[in-house]
Design goal:
It is built from 12 helices and 8 strands. It is an alpha/beta fold. Strands 2-1-5-6-7-8 form a 6-stranded parallel beta sheet, with helices on both faces. Strands 3-4 form a two-stranded antiparallel ribbon. Keywords: Hydrolase.
Amino acid sequence: MKILCLHGFGTNPGIMKRQMSALIKHCDPRWQFDFLAGNVECPGAPGVEAFPGPYLCWSLDYGPLSIRAALDLIDETFQSEGPFDGVFGFCQGAAIIAAYLLEQADLYPGRPLPVRFGIFCCSTPILTADPDYIYNLYGTLSDEDIRRLRSGEADQIAQLPDSVRPAAIVLVEGLAAMAPVHGDSLSYFLNRPFSEIPGVVLPDQYKPRLSIPTLHIYGKDDPVSLKEACIFNAAFCDPRWRKLYRHSTIHNIPRSPTDVKEVVSLMESMTSHSQRSRL
């Protein structure tokens, strides 16, 4: 069993391996966890100062061009180091691998996905690399509505058209929740040409679905916007085979004995189902 793991913003493969050590210790020893390094250097996430850098992410500006570069890196990894049975993503790593799998489902609707299961832990909102999606989201906004979007203010966002308001709310709230990690202001992400503003992918607006067993993990004390991102992202997955689990702390990979036991049990159940479906 070979699982590709994607780390969170401002960490690296070594840090993620440490974060996952309790889970890995209790997993089947035949499972192989391979850790992919993000393609962009960035400031370290809070609390990683004791670990050696470089600190990495999958996108620093969250715009479609940098998301495309991350998706290309993942695709190259599948081609050169695969096949993989499953994926495990944390934080931005969970969102970027979800974006990759959704794009594969969109591009090749008659083809099986390149993995048989997915684990998405404390995912941030899924962002698009598709310029057409960005245009459909923002391209027809009036100048006044663009100003409302760029303000990042809740009362202004609430006045946006129905076609863009839900995605804009998720974007702004997600960026605000992750500000201690990425360290940038809302204006850094929003005060750009509309084609470079990050575009959140929501299940009501993007039709591809993941028809594999999935596990979606979030923290009991996570900000509300990140809990909602996890639930939104789960809506892209087949309800027959998706599971949600709330662990006992805040934005992190489960470490407590109770959480580890429950998550490993869910992982074993999911991998067993994926193996049976292959037969």
